[in-house]
Protein backbone atom coordinates (compact mmCIF):
# COMPACT_ATOMS: atom_id res chain seq x y z
CA UNK A 1 0.00 0.00 0.00
CA UNK A 2 2.84 2.39 0.72
CA UNK A 3 3.19 4.99 3.43
CA UNK A 4 0.07 6.23 5.20
CA UNK A 5 -0.20 9.04 7.74
CA UNK A 6 -2.77 9.09 10.55
CA UNK A 7 -3.85 12.31 12.28
CA UNK A 8 -5.96 11.99 15.44
CA UNK A 9 -8.38 14.55 16.87
CA UNK A 10 -7.00 16.54 19.80
CA UNK A 11 -6.78 14.72 23.15
CA UNK A 12 -10.11 14.80 24.95
CA UNK A 13 -11.94 13.30 27.94
CA UNK A 14 -14.82 11.95 25.85
CA UNK A 15 -13.14 8.83 24.47
CA UNK A 16 -13.19 10.19 20.91
CA UNK A 17 -10.21 8.95 18.90
CA UNK A 18 -11.41 9.82 15.40
CA UNK A 19 -8.57 9.97 12.95
CA UNK A 20 -7.94 10.84 9.33
CA UNK A 21 -5.68 8.57 7.33
CA UNK A 22 -3.89 10.02 4.32
CA UNK A 23 -3.27 7.29 1.75
CA UNK A 24 -0.28 7.25 -0.63
CA UNK A 25 -2.61 8.55 -3.36
CA UNK A 26 -3.30 11.66 -1.25
CA UNK A 27 -6.87 10.58 -0.56
CA UNK A 28 -7.94 11.27 3.04
CA UNK A 29 -10.27 8.88 4.87
CA UNK A 30 -11.82 9.77 8.23
CA UNK A 31 -12.35 6.90 10.67
CA UNK A 32 -14.66 7.27 13.71
CA UNK A 33 -13.18 5.55 16.80
CA UNK A 34 -14.61 5.64 20.32
CA UNK A 35 -13.65 4.20 23.69
CA UNK A 36 -16.59 3.86 26.08
CA UNK A 37 -16.28 3.03 29.79
CA UNK A 38 -17.94 -0.27 30.66
CA UNK A 39 -17.78 -1.57 34.22
CA UNK A 40 -14.12 -1.91 35.19
CA UNK A 41 -13.08 -1.97 31.53
CA UNK A 42 -14.06 -0.39 28.27
CA UNK A 43 -15.51 -0.99 24.83
CA UNK A 44 -13.61 0.13 21.74
CA UNK A 45 -15.85 0.93 18.76
CA UNK A 46 -14.53 1.48 15.25
CA UNK A 47 -17.02 2.34 12.54
CA UNK A 48 -15.93 1.16 9.11
CA UNK A 49 -17.81 2.79 6.25
CA UNK A 50 -17.77 1.43 2.72
CA UNK A 51 -16.51 4.17 0.43
CA UNK A 52 -18.29 4.79 -2.87
CA UNK A 53 -15.26 3.60 -4.85
CA UNK A 54 -15.00 0.34 -2.86
CA UNK A 55 -16.58 -2.91 -4.01
CA UNK A 56 -17.80 -5.51 -1.53
CA UNK A 57 -14.63 -7.63 -1.77
CA UNK A 58 -12.39 -4.65 -0.97
CA UNK A 59 -14.69 -3.66 1.89
CA UNK A 60 -14.37 -7.15 3.38
CA UNK A 61 -10.57 -6.88 3.07
CA UNK A 62 -10.62 -3.55 4.91
CA UNK A 63 -12.88 -5.04 7.59
CA UNK A 64 -10.41 -7.90 8.11
CA UNK A 65 -7.53 -5.42 8.49
CA UNK A 66 -9.48 -3.34 11.01
CA UNK A 67 -10.41 -6.46 12.97
CA UNK A 68 -6.74 -7.52 13.06
CA UNK A 69 -5.74 -4.07 14.36
CA UNK A 70 -8.45 -4.17 17.04
CA UNK A 71 -7.32 -7.61 18.17
CA UNK A 72 -3.75 -6.28 18.44
CA UNK A 73 -5.05 -3.37 20.52
CA UNK A 74 -6.92 -5.80 22.75
CA UNK A 75 -3.81 -7.94 23.31
CA UNK A 76 -1.78 -4.87 24.22
CA UNK A 77 -4.38 -3.51 26.62
CA UNK A 78 -4.96 -6.85 28.33
CA UNK A 79 -1.27 -7.78 28.63
CA UNK A 80 0.53 -7.30 31.95
CA UNK A 81 2.50 -4.04 32.02
CA UNK A 82 5.86 -5.85 31.92
CA UNK A 83 4.96 -7.51 28.60
CA UNK A 84 4.36 -4.24 26.80
CA UNK A 85 6.90 -2.10 28.65
CA UNK A 86 4.36 0.22 30.27
CA UNK A 87 4.98 1.32 33.83
CA UNK A 88 1.51 2.86 34.14
CA UNK A 89 -0.60 -0.03 32.84
CA UNK A 90 -3.73 -0.98 34.74
CA UNK A 91 -3.44 -4.42 36.38
CA UNK A 92 -5.10 -7.15 34.30
CA UNK A 93 -7.70 -7.84 37.01
CA UNK A 94 -8.99 -4.28 36.46
CA UNK A 95 -9.51 -4.81 32.74
CA UNK A 96 -11.50 -8.03 32.75
CA UNK A 97 -14.25 -6.54 30.63
CA UNK A 98 -12.07 -4.89 27.98
CA UNK A 99 -13.54 -5.79 24.61
CA UNK A 100 -12.94 -4.79 21.02
CA UNK A 101 -16.07 -4.41 18.89
CA UNK A 102 -16.15 -3.81 15.19
CA UNK A 103 -19.15 -1.87 13.89
CA UNK A 104 -19.42 -1.99 10.13
CA UNK A 105 -21.83 -0.04 8.01
CA UNK A 106 -22.25 0.21 4.26
What would your notes on this structure say?
The chain has 106 residues and is of the alpha+beta class. The protein has one domain: START domain (Alpha-D-Glucose-1,6-Bisphosphate, Chain A, domain 4, 2-Layer Sandwich). The chain is built from two helices and six strands; from the N terminus they run βββββααβ. The strands form two sheets. Strands 1-2-3 form a three-stranded antiparallel beta sheet, with no helix packed on it. Strands 4-5-6 form a three-stranded mixed beta sheet, with helices on one face. The chain is globular, with a radius of gyration of 15 Å. It starts with a strand and ends with a strand. Mean pLDDT is 80; it is low at 90-106.
Condensed summary:
With 106 residues, this protein is α+β, with helices and mostly antiparallel strands. 25% of the residues lie in helices and 32% in strands.
Amino acid sequence: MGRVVAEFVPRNDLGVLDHTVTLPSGRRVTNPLRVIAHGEGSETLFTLLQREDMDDARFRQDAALVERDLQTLRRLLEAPAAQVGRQDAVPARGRKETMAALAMSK
